[in-house]
Amino acid sequence: xxxxxxxxxxxxxxxxxxxxxxxxxxxxxxxxxxxxxxxxxxxxxxxxxxxxxxxxxxxxxxxxxxxxxxxxxxxxxxxxxxxxxxxxxxxxxxxxxxxxxxxxxxxxxxxxxxxxxxxxxxxxxxxxxxxxxxxxxxxxxxxxxxxxxxxxxxxxxxxxxxxxxxxxxxxxxxxxxxxxxxxxxxxxxxxxxxxxxxxxxxxxxxxxxxxxxxxxxxxxxxxxxxxxxxxxxxxxxxxxxxxxxxxxxxxxxxxxxxxxxxxxxxxxxxxxxxxxxxxxxxxxxxxxxxxxxxxxxxxxxxxxxxxxxxxxxxxxxxxxxxxxxxxxxx
Length: 330
Ligand code: ADP
Ligand code: NA
Known about the structure:
This is Tryptophan--tRNA ligase. The chain has 330 residues and is mainly α. It has 13 helices and five strands. The strands form two sheets. A three-stranded parallel beta sheet has the order 1-2-3. It binds adenosine-5'-diphosphate (ADP) and sodium ion (NA).
């Protein structure tokens, strides 16, 4: 009688995770450690769907793991590992590729966005089949719950479809996962353009809060965040997206309700809200930055955590892969 399983992966982006990654995904990874048998990985296989520099990829993968630990992942409470250390991901992905329709895969909106950015000459088949690898990532662990941001909902939906298809064709094998997306933080918006999501690829430097930046730099960005010509501090995602985004960030980081914040700032201006939020962000990132540096300064500890994580992950992944390969006829 085991706990429900949680699984999620995050790409080793260059430099730093941003506040959207933390509030939309990583914060839920930390919470689900307490209630779930949780598996989290840095998805370096996914990272090579666009051109990469080998040395940078290796460094960014470690930096990502260090940031996940600094954000609160506890290797005693969850399994943290690097995707490429567990070969079963790629091995199951082939089966998933052969169960996914070409038209079905062509409907993935993230592929449309990312391939448009790469241009047709730069778009690899790997970028196209990225969601199929992600399906394998999830079902290998029989995950019940997949903590992600709103932009990943479609990928969890196709995971459900393909897992159900496999089960129908070959017999009950895989758990059907649910996305775990919080309404308040499933989509954190760009500070300069609160109609698009904060993102490494689409945000301008002023629109994104990088967790490892100097707090002063982030404070300046928050103070110049785009709001509206009204003055009232009120949550209204449709008419006041900028202010609403700041309120969502503030409420989540301080574990306060939006209603309490609206009361607190009744009659006050946007300047007061921004100054206080800059302080809240500084308080969160300051220990995060030093903990990340501690892990980077102690490569042996980091390596040992990741090696143990890969071993624990492999035990589960190998069992699922063996069952799936057997069902397929291998
Ligand atoms: P990016 O979109 O910046 O490239 P990733 O694709 O690496 O970031 O996303 C890693 C995780 O963070 C995913 O679960 C994704 O859904 C989540 N995420 C990314 N951006 C945001 C955002 N602006 N708001 C909420 N969640 C986000
Ligand atoms: Na994303």
